[in-house]
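Posted in: Structural Biology > Protein-Ligand Complexes

Title: Requesting predicted complex, zinc ion in pocket

I'd be grateful if someone could produce the 3D structure tokens for the following input. Sequence and ligand are given below.
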Amino acid sequence: MKIICIGRNYADHAKELNNPVPSKPLVFMKPPSALLVNNKPLYYPEFTNNLHYEAEIVLKIGRNGRHVQPEFAHKYYEQIGLGIDFTARDIQSQCKEKGHPWEIAKGFDHSAVVSAFSPLSDFDSSAISFELKKNGTAVQNGNTKDLIFNFDYIIQYVSTYFKLQMGDLIFTGTPAGVGPVQIGDHLEGFLEGKKMLDCKIK
Ligand code: ZN
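-- Reply #1 --
Done. Output follows.
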């Protein structure tokens, strides 16, 4: 399986990091070894001093496909979950400055935290709200109605370059409010108010 991520997909988040709003999806990947599931804790990596959370809705790919046409895109994902795209922001800034790829800042072990999945049919995919709490206080609130590139467009775009395979995951971007975590912090993620994710930083 592969983990595909979309960057800067909410205008308010692009702005908070002084990035331009993209005209095409910004795509990067994390390796399968980045996956952290079952609400296991994340051990703060020693190579960073500025580890950030990014709460995102995650699509689980349910069938194989290439060059998916927009009208069929919805058939490729039937389950969604909540994820955290952990980012070593200091390393990422260094990579960006040099124009280097940012895998070491985004694809390190356990940087892709993913909840259990729920059927998409339980939601109205054009307006799904999600929230991240840090130590009991809401730090990120998002809604898929604010996506720059919606789920169907992401499927179409990504499948132009990469064959989608059953079990692949797509992180769909984070809203404003990203920020640092410290050892001892407790993150909780919610989809439409329902708790999906629990992650302690150790
Ligand atoms: Zn992200």
